[in-house]
Write a structure and sequence with these properties.
The complex is a heterodimer of chains A (244) and B (263).
Chain A (H helix, E strand, L loop, with lengths): L5 E10 L2 E11 L4 E5 L6 H8 L7 E6 L2 E2 L4 H5 L2 E5 L10 H11 L5 H11 L15 H14 L4 E5 L7 H18 L2 E5 L3 H7 L2 E6 L2 E6 L1 H8 L4 H13 L1
Parallel strand pairs in A: 3-8, 3-9, 6-7, 7-8
Antiparallel strand pairs in A: 1-2, 1-4, 4-5, 9-10
Helix pairs in contact in A: 3-5
Chain B lengths: L2 H16 L2 H26 L8 H31 L3 H5 L5 H31 L10 H26 L6 H9 L14 H8 L2 H13 L6 H32 L1 H4 L3
Helix pairs in contact in B: 1-5, 2-3, 2-5, 3-5, 3-6, 3-9, 6-7, 6-9, 6-10, 9-10
The chains are: A alpha/beta (244), B mainly alpha (263).
């Protein structure tokens, strides 16, 4: 039995009277891909922001690698990275310069080799020396993913990582994530609004609604429990319930 | 504090300056323009040297030193704004980077700007107006160091306000320092201020530096007391400013402002 790499207990976040996240508990095992599903405003992004130490929880605890995030922030974040469609990188720097800055920030050794590897892996050779401002949104997504992979994290938080990619590149990214998980035991917390992708990628899924976990299990278990045809139907049912 | 993280941020800013003409202009253009205008005013006032002995020489020295304070403050605040504009704060603070390392990097950038502006203005003053800032002598070194510290105090405080209130407070990056100018007694002695304002000026470290500068140029003896006041006040205010920054940082994390700033 492996001890979890991430263990979240009774995690809550209130902004004034609004409970953005309301007492959620879950864990991720080494090498596991956990899908975080839920309609807009369900608390997915706030949860990820708390896991990254960007938002202070109102209550509850976050432990990674057996350490408390509140007291071991630096050691934990050295082994964690993230990518989101909604973040950017400094636009006036080239792709390569951005990667070098991140590599230095995390104190990587042999930076040229590591940058070369990641550029090849994500097929970015063509635009590695281009200023980030001039990239298409798909290329930009690849750069933020490269940033996330560059530091060889043990846990990766991915917030809609394939949202702006064409099907070919999105498929390659999914294959890469699976390969990284297989090769290095990478654990991933994954959010997406693409239900087929969620089913394909996730070992387990957590369904959030109004800041609470309303379902947890494999995609098939959740579909069966809610008596729907597929995950998309479950999503629509829960999303419409939360709008009432 | 890890040096590699501080160096990473410095590299990030130097990359930025390497290919951005507007940013390079921002360092040189305004200081140079200030120098040209005050240089001509000084040249004009030199005609009345008889009525105002020695006073005119204060202006250019004061201008150069004031610009160093201004650039020191800008080094901190603009570095933060660059991250805000690039929507890069999330990348930085979701990494192992500590707020202290972030501040250290902005302080190094501030020294870089002060040094660059200082060299340019000194050379231009010498070349165009035959004004030698080194006539202040060795006192120039502690004066500049203290003005850099005052710039850091104002810069860290302004950065905290921008972090707390977001892009709406951006304008403070350029305007905040001028709130301190009247009570810094840059171009006039403290004694001409009304009594109540003298008290306010007295707790401003920059005012003691400019008083000290006038004492040196007016051959009134060593400005040790002025310098001691400046060092003491700078030390006190820097501790308060950094404490305030940490407090604001914690508040922004609690309110979720750190991830929303710049949106």
């Amino acid at each position: 039995m492996f001890s979890p790499v991430l263990d979240v207990t009774d995690l809550s976040k209130r902004f004034g009277d609004f409970p953005a996240v309301d007492g959620i508990s879950f864990s991720i095992k080494p090498g596991e891909i956990l899908g975080l599903l839920g309609p807009n405003g369900a608390g997915k992004t706030t949860t990820i922001q708390m896991l990254l130490g960007l938002v202070t929880p109102t209550a509850g605890s976050i432990r990674m690698f057996g350490m408390d995030l509140a007291t071991h922030r630096e050691t934990i974040l050295q082994q964690v990275n993230f990518s989101s469609t909604y973040i950017s990188m400094p636009q006036s720097l080239t792709v390569e310069e951005n990667l070098w800055v991140i590599a230095r920030l995390y104190g990587l050794l042999d930076i040229p080799r590591r940058v070369d590897e990641i550029v090849k892996k994500l097929e970015m050779e063509e635009f590695r020396t281009r200023v980030t401002r001039k990239l298409s949104s798909g290329q930009m997504t690849r750069v933020t993913l490269a940033k996330a992979f560059l530091t060889e994290p043990k846990i990766l938080f991915l917030d809609e990582p394939t949202a702006s990619l064409d099907p070919d590149i999105a498929g390659k990214i999914r294959a890469l994530l699976k390969e990284e998980r297989r090769a290095s035991g990478l654990s991933i917390l994954y959010t997406s609004h693409n239900m087929r992708e969620m089913e394909e990628m996730s070992d387990r899924i957590i369904f959030l609604q109004c800041g609470k976990i309303v379902a947890e299990g494999t995609a098939q278990e959740i579909v069966t429990r809610f008596g729907q045809a597929d995950l998309e139907e479950v999503f629509l049912k829960l999303a419409r319930e939360s709008q009432r | 504090m890890k040096l590699h993280r501080v160096l990473a941020l410095i590299a990030r800013h130097l990359y930025l300056y390497r290919r951005s003409l507007p940013r390079i202009m921002e360092i040189f253009y305004w200081p140079f323009l200030d120098l040209v205008i005050w240089g001509f005013i000084t040249t004009y006032l030199t005609r009345f040297q008889g009525q105002m002995p020695g006073f005119v020489t204060f202006f250019l020295g004061a201008l150069i030193l004031w610009d160093m304070l201004f650039r020191s403050q800008q080094g901190i605040t603009i570095s933060f704004l660059e991250e805000l504009w690039a929507r890069n704060l999330m990348n930085l603070f979701a990494s192992p980077l500590k707020p202290s390392e972030f501040l250290a990097a902005t302080m190094v950038m501030s020294i870089f700007k002060v040094a660059t502006v200082g060299i340019v203005l000194t050379l231009c003053a010498l070349l165009f107006y035959s004004y030698n800032v080194f006539m202040i002598g060795l006192w120039l070194i502690p004066f500049i160091l203290n003005l850099v510290l005052t710039g850091w105090v104002i810069g860290v405080f302004t950065t905290s306000l921008i972090m707390r209130f977001g892009q709406e407070a951006e304008v403070l990056a350029w305007s905040m320092v001028f709130l301190f100018q009247p009570i810094s007694c840059v171009f006039y002695p403290m004694e001409i201020l009304p009594n109540w304002l003298k008290l306010v000026a007295w707790i401003n470290p920059a005012a003691h530096i400019f008083e000290g500068m006038r004492a040196v140029l007016g051959a009134e003896g060593a400005p040790s007391a002025s310098l001691a006041w400046a060092v003491g006040l700078n030390g006190l205010f820097l501790v308060i400013a950094v404490w305030w920054f940490y407090r604001t940082f914690a508040y922004c994390k609690d309110q979720g402002l750190l991830v929303r700033i710049g949106e």
